[in-house]
Amino acid sequence: MCGLYAIHLLLLWKPLERWVTFGEAFATSPAMAGLAAVTAAIIGARALGRQLEHAKAEALNARRKDAEASWWEKFEWVTDRILPKDKEKQEKLETSLALRLSTSLLEMSTAEFQREAVNGVIKHYLEKPKEQGIFSTGGDTADSATDPAAVRAFLAAAQGSSSQANRVFLSGFLYESEVKAALEAQSIQPLSRYDPIAAAVMTELKYEPDAVLDIEDRRVMLDIKGGERLPRMWARSIAGLSNRIRAITHGEVDLIVVTNATRIPVEVKDALRIVRWVPEDGHEALEVRIREKLGLDYGGDTNEPAPEV
Fold first, then answer.
1. Side-chain-side CA neighbours of residue 171 (13 Å)
2. Is the dihedral of CA 63, 64, 70, 73 positive or negative?
3. pLDDT tens, 137-184?
4. Who contacts 264 (Cβ-Cβ below 8 Å, separation ≥6)?
5. What is the pTM of this model?
């Protein structure tokens, strides 16, 4: 109805013949070409937008599938060495090392059925029931360090029978073990994950740090990341998480990234507290650098900044 009323008003303003003449003139004028170009551009932009959204969705789906395939490859590699099919050709994981690697798989999991698979392996093949009927993993705490020498020896033995992805996985685990061993050598014992303050943060944010420390009454969550470079997307995610941790705890809990990476994304350099450490630097250097990031006096400055990328 509104359209018909508008047409009626236009015809009252000028007769139909005048509108026909105007239409013929406009159709052959440069303005018509400009209008057609603008219309085509709008249609093309919308089509391109839909194509980009589709391509983005496909890329995200492909990355998700790749991540899932990589996770299952690691899971199969670990379980094959918990229960080797050929004991003469396959190296067998020592129980405590198998438990640590299984815990790492739990932390890397993205789906409930993945967690169920790992928990099933832990319960049936790695835990030992105590006399009271409570399951035990051998008496050590969940955050205590695995002997780096054991990981290093297994990594050397598995070189010829492991994919590049699994060697990277085990190398990252080796670095985590070296960091925890260095902290224990400095008498810095990780807190239990059931520490009330840390547990509250982990529950609210659904975040599992690699270790929780208490340094001069400061709660410190460590995220340990081995590798040549810090992945850009991971670093951005951890930077956001660090801000949320400080916000919900009013600055009582800090998040520090400990890494041996030589390349760190420049955009997270100021947003993250990053400690760069390699085992060759010595145990004391790690504690010194963590304390400096917390603003605690220890003496000396051994922290060499990582180059920007």
1. 15
2. negative
3. 333 344 445 677 777 777 776 666 666 777 777 788 888 889 988 988
4. 229, 230, 235, 274, 276, 306, 307, 308, 309
5. 0.62
Q: Which of 224, 214, 220, 230 is nearest to 179 (CA)?
A: 224
> How many C-alpha atoms does 100 have within 13 Å on its Cβ side?
26
Q: What tokens were used for 110?
A: 């993205």
Instruction: Report the Cα 27 to chain-centroid distance in Å.
Output: 58
Give whichever of 8-22, 51-65, 190-204, 243-257 has the largest mean pLDDT. 243-257
Distance CA 115, CA 75 (A): 11
Which residues have a Cβ under 8 Å from the Cβ of 219 and sit 6 or more positions away? 191, 195, 197, 198, 212, 213, 249, 252, 253, 254
Euclidean distance between the first and final Cα of the chain, in Å? 63
pLDDT at position 88 is 65
Backbone angles phi, psi at 30, to 5 degrees: -60, -30
Q: For residue 64, what are the CA distances in angstroms to 53, 70, 258, 278, 299?
A: 16, 10, 26, 32, 46
Place of tokens 């850009």: 232
How would DSSP label each residue in 275-301? EE--GGG-HHHHHHHHHHHTT---S--
CB atoms within 10 A of CB 294: 16
